[in-house]
Amino acid sequence: KCQSNLTVMDRIAQLGKYGLFDARVPRYTSYPTSPQFTPAIDAAVFQSWVAAIAPGSRISLYLHVPFCRRLCWFCACRTQGMASDDPVRAYAETVLQEIDLLARNLPSGVTLSRLHWGGGTPTYLSDEQMGDLMHHIRRWFQLTDDEKGEYSIEVDPRSVSAGRIHRLRGQGFNRISLGVQDFDPEVQKAVNRLQPEAMTLEVIRAAREAKFRSISID
User: Which long-range contacts link 203-208 to residues 24+ away (Cβ below 8 Å)?
Assistant: First the structure.
């Protein structure tokens, strides 16, 4: 064990010689990254970015749902626990407006080949709210077919039933990513995420039955 610790420390020291720890860098969860979005990024800049997309391109779209029923203590993503659903409803309405804004500025013939819902917990939204958003996306964007497109969603196994998994598939999602941090109950307690192994396996079984093309563990 001592030798193992020394080896790790030696590796850290070696990486330090290359300047790896000399500067703070952004977490690349999106592009452009959060620090790039300043008051200088106004409507004109946004429109110029979107207008630069070539007509007929295949693009990707990311939707972020920054809400959770209960916060995990390790998480560094932009999210918050909610005691009321009012802010969630307001947020969903704002996302609808954002989709309108984006679609009106896109060049013609653009195809949506990848869609990803992340969070937070995207399934914090109700079936109705999620259905409205997916319907709105289809209204504005031409989606590639199920075999060629990648339409994914992050799921907290604690927040969904087998029936919800099947409904997600029916709404057009074909890839699913399950949040699983550890199966050790002591670790789960330490990170404030109690999630029995059987619960995770039940969601995996439901996703297989629903014919999701891809099931991954996050």
Answer: 203/155, 203/157, 203/160, 203/162, 203/165, 203/178, 204/178, 205/162, 206/162, 206/165, 206/166, 207/165, 207/169, 207/176
Per-residue pLDDT at 201 exceeds 60: yes
Helices (H), the chain: 2-17, 43-51, 86-105, 127-140, 162-170, 185-190, 197-209
**Taking Cα atoms as reference points, which of 63, 120, 144 lies closest to residue 96?**
63
Cα–Cα distance between 27 and 179 in angstroms, integer?
19
Tokens of 218: 């996050």
Tokens standing for residue 28: 């690349």
Structure-block tokens of residue 93: 């309405």
For residues 92 and 125, the answer to whether their CB atoms sit within 8 Å is yes
Q: How sure is the predictor about 1, in pLDDT bands with cuts at 50, 70 and 90?
A: very low
pLDDT tier, 41 (very low <50, low <70, confident <90, very high otherwise): confident
Q: Which residues contact 56 (CB under 8 A, 6 or more apart)?
A: 107, 108, 109, 110, 111
- The per-residue pLDDT for 19 is 76
- Distance CA(79)–CA(89), nearest Å, equals 15
Q: What is the pLDDT of residues 94-149, one digit of tens each?
A: 999 999 989 988 998 899 999 999 988 999 999 999 999 999 999 998 888 877 88
